[in-house]
Amino acid sequence: MQIAACSLRLFPWATPVVQAFRFLWTKLLVQCASETKGDHARMRFGISYHENVNNWATKGLIDAMKAKGHDVKPFRLLDVAAEIPHGFVHLEEDLTLDGAIVRTIGFGTGNQITYRISLLEHLEDAGIYVMNPAYSFRRAKDKYATLTALHKAGIRVPRTHVSENLEAATAFSEEVGDVIIKPLIGARGMGMIRAENQELTYRALKFIHQLGQVLYVQEMIEKPDRDIRAFVIDNQLVAAMYRNVPKGEWRSNIHGGAEAEAVELDDEYTECAIKTAEVLKLDYTGVDILESKDGPCVIEANASPSWSALSRVTNLDIAGMIVDLLVKKSKGT
Ligand SMILES: Nc1ncnc2c1ncn2[C@@H]1O[C@H](COP(=O)(O)OP(=O)(O)O)[C@@H](O)[C@H]1O
Ligand SMILES: [Mg+2]
Question: Which domains are present in the chain?
Answer without folding.
Answer: 44-131 (3.40.50.20), 160-219 (3.30.1490.20), 222-314 (3.30.470.20)
